[in-house]
TrEMBL record:
Residues 620-677 form the RAP domain. It holds the Pfam family RAP. It comes from the Eukaryota. PROSITE patterns: RAP (PS51286). This is RAP domain-containing protein. It comes from Cryptotermes secundus.
Amino acid sequence: MLKYFLLRLPNTLYCVQQIKVRKFGLITRLHPHKGYHVAMAWERSYLNIQTYIPLKNNFLGNLLSCQVYGQFKTVITNSSTVKKEFTENSYAHAVLERNPVYTVTLAPKGFVETEEISDDEFQNMTRKDWNSESAESVFVGFKKMILFSKKQHSVNGETFEGIFKTLTQKCSQLNDNDLIGILACLRQWPSPAEPYSENYVELWKEVDKQCVLRMEKWDRNKLLFVADHWYLLNLGKISDFMWHCTVRLSRRPEKLTSSQLVQCMFYINIRRKFPPHISVYDFEYSLQNCLDQLTLDDLGILAMGFFKSKKPIRSQTLLTELIRRIINSVDTIHEITLAALLKVIRYSLEPTHADVLFVLMDKLVPNINRVSQLCCTHIALLGTHINQYHEGTMNEIVQRFVNEIESSRLKDLERLAFALSLYNYEHKMEPSIYKLIAKELCRSERAQEIEQHPKCLSCCLHYLSLQKIYLNEEISKVLDKSFIHTVYGKNNNKVGREILSLDIGVGLECPEYNGNRLEPKLRNYLAKIYTDRVWKYEDLTRKKLNATDQLLFEVISVAISVLGGRRKVHLGHLIPHRERADIVYGICADGSAVDIPPSFCNLEIGTCKRAPDVPNTKWYCIVVAGWNSYIRILNKPVGTMSSKLRQLQLLGYKPVIVPWFEWRELSVEEQERYLAKKIWEEFKEEVSCTVR
């Protein structure tokens, strides 16, 4: 009867409007009238969860302030955004709970067993002097007080001060089961206290210390069992025991069972740090040996551990197997698992995986409308690490975001803008996806979200600027000194490239802009940080060159030969926020190369170097385009390259592009003819260059 009433409850409340919001593949009806928390049935269910349903209305609150088992969730109806029903971590832990293999290593969720006490007994216990009692008696009293007051008192109140203090002092005298029992008791409060609140911090730190001291005597299963208690207390990130536990388990991964490997990686994911001095290769090798014993959800948990600890998967066998498993189960894989796997695949990809990645993208296209926007975002980002574009996925994802743009998270819009600008995506509809994203950034309803994630605003504005979309008012806001200090701190090293790019961009492409600009000192400092250390030709001759610098060295050497000497060529950063240096030369009306003016060569890093004012001379810029300047296979320039070429023209140069895929096919003799031909063609056959 209660379940039926809950299902019918929304129909009894006054509804102004119904908004359908997609979150993690679940359709939630959000009623925006103020003041009610409405329980709605899931249209699709993955877990049978227990939900506590509070309502502000007194009558309904008294009627429904109970715990209901079933396929329900709580929707806050006066909020502009909907909170995730499941975070990655909670979903991953639920995966472990559903698998009976983990029964002995997961903390039970039931209440602590102890006898109930009356109100008078509780009051007597709060006034009792516990110092004379044994450690076991103090713990028994602690359990009774917890059971009685778990919904009525705060941990950091005076009520528990005496017993907390005494229990903290006597922790070392407790046996292992009672020590772990303290952690189980602390979990009984519906909302755990702040980690460093009074009473609470002293107790959990002492328990943490005792766990570290005793862990040498515990086997692997017990280590995982205790670690799970710390996770459920939301103390996994700061617990010393949790850290030492992951270190010890990771030392000999070949000794761990498949389930122990997965659970260990789950706690590494919680810590967001892989144990130092531990061989990731050994860990990957152990995983390879038990892949056939792991479910796709298990692999998703492993992926979370690698990604959150910033450890790419180096084993090509393991990475290929992850992609293959997704392909085989693409229609049924849970979206949180899919998102976790896609993140680590993107983080670990090498160009050698391009073919199998394209197959995966083909398989993902029909599922884009099945999964959440968050998962769609990770699908859009999948090929960005190796500049691989897949038209089918991008078209479907863009259409999905166009339809649901107002319910999209700011973080998802920012990541989508990155992928779109990287691929130079052309949206032929009007308004385009770029304009829709720009409109969202200006909506007043986004103000709170922008305040929570201000860096997303500056990054999103940067990606839009690559497509020549400038929001002057918002750009002025992010270039304000107070905004920069608030978001990035006062350490100039932490100010992002996007800030420098926006500042230079409005200076070059927005003549009507009159908003905030960076101070010259900060602009010059950032330019030195974000430009490659090759600032002049001599820098290429004094250091060991990587592949990109070697390509630049070869091109400028040939350019010097073609144009007639070092004085005819200048290597430098013409646009401060562009990482790579370019090669400048000028051709006068009679077809000969001119000397580069010394004043031009001496311009400071951080200034936009406009073409020198030399009569009857046209100025050119040889842009050496490396592999990351082009979309793979299509050989189309990425967004940053297109933007750079556009801005070079505004500075008075005609770009002469030397693509890496053309240059690498040439012999030394062919390179000189190739570059001379390009120079000749760019001058429209009116220039005759001396080839030496």
